[in-house]
């Protein structure tokens, strides 16, 4: 990095100030595709679909679906998955355009850094921890819940260390949960290609387990369990969206592998969209079957699929073998989900460290395995601690808000990128980031009014400015249309993505906002204390002064 002193030791005050100017928060990274060349480009389209499906389907079907059915939407969880899929499809198009144009390992962090500036990139990169590392923690909690069903199947008492030690509704000590995280961390430490082969095998078993539940469970549906279909109303459906949204992080995790894909411009968009389609179909089918087998009030939050068969054993004693098959398949499937979640986080840390915004230790890559080893171990330890102490519901809400914030920023980034020229300049008095920020604020108000059942004229008052902003952005000429994959109907579709994602965010519980505010405050301290001073863009600013 350039020195802050001239040859005669006189401080170069202008250079030092340039690091701390307000404009530093909005400076944008001029991406260079050579940054990821040290990673092993070994993954094919089948590998990335396997990672996406393995991560997505395991988390949604086996963990969050029970919480959504019992506490939020009832049988209407089917609609929750459909609405979430629509929001995800919009975001998927935006992710695909970014991933094809900027095939780096940082996912939404890199996209935000290039499109919206350094602080936006840092904000998303930091909050992606809520998506990846904490997702691994939540899935590990689900894994331990299903493991306890082994003892139920064989009519033996479940040991207390397997059930966990309850403290309150948020904290619940679960000694078994970190075990699966430690195992997956060790697997990832041996290299991404080896873990890809492992994941392909596990994902195949995952599909067999899901299809077994769908086909065999359909013979035990009681249609009376579908009435009422919406026991908590449509507001419950959207609350269900907020609870199960983290189930769709799989297609996002695909973009963290950008630097290791052989043909990213073709394979990444295909992998993202195919992953989303497969996950949505399976989610809807499983939620329909599960809510038909068991009344929504009796659905298990910890191990819903296997408990559905166990609940029928009083009438059909021989069904225990089916519960055993589900438990066995679920444990391997959740192993794949945990592995995929742990795979993504170290690569985001690595990209942030390369850009100087995070501690340099995280950018080190093992020469033999070509894996960011320190970041992988750190992520494993961090996820293990959270899995040990926090409940599934607390973890899933934290994941959903982190995921939705990332999706929102990526959608906004597409609009901004299309309206700027190759030098990052936008020829308008009112810049697009400001318009999008205003739209985000009104989307928050609109979602808050809807979740609190405010009168319709309040909701119309909040919706009208958003429509005006969409029209203002639509009439502007797009000067930077990519020659790779293009998000359709831009900027209308990305703007709808911002609105829909924000709408779902506002249906989360208040405690989720407290947690994300505290987490963001910690991140801001790290950024202002370390990142802004060590950013690689400081060198560019100093070189331009010299």
3D structure, described in words:
- This protein is mostly helical and 546 residues long.
- It has a domain at 35-408: Amino acid/polyamine transporter I (Up-down Bundle), CATH 1.20.1740.
- The protein is 67% helix and 1% strand.
- It contains 22 helices and two strands.
- The chain has a two-stranded antiparallel sheet with strand order 1-2.
- Strand 1 and strand 2 form a beta hairpin.
- The protein starts with 12 loop residues before the first helix and ends with a helix.
- 55% of the residues are buried.
- Mean pLDDT is 80; it is low at 1-19 and 33-37.
Q: Which segments are poorly predicted (pLDDT under 50) over 5 or more consecutive residues?
A: 1-19, 33-37
Termini Cα gap: 13 Å
CATH class of the domain at 35-408: Mainly Alpha
Helix count, per DSSP?
A: 22
Beta content: under 5%
Helix content: 55-70%
CATH topology of the domain at 35-408: Amino acid/polyamine transporter I
Determine Rg (CA atoms, Å): 23 Å
H-E string = HHHHHHHHEEHHHHHHHHHHHHHH
Summarize, please:
This is Putative cationic amino acid transporter. By secondary structure, the protein is mainly alpha-helical.
Structure characteristics:
546 residues, mainly alpha, Amino acid/polyamine transporter I, 1% strand, globular, transmembrane helix, membrane, amino acid transmembrane transporter activity, transmembrane, CAT_C
Topology:
Blueprint: H1 13-20, H2 45-73, H3 77-101, H4 108-116, H5 118-127, H6 133-147, H7 149-153, H8 160-163, E1 165-166, E2 172-173, H9 177-189, H10 192-217, H11 233-244, H12 249-255, H13 264-293, H14 304-310, H15 320-354, H16 373-389, H17 392-419, H18 432-451, H19 456-474, H20 492-505, H21 510-534, H22 537-545
Antiparallel strand pairs: 1-2
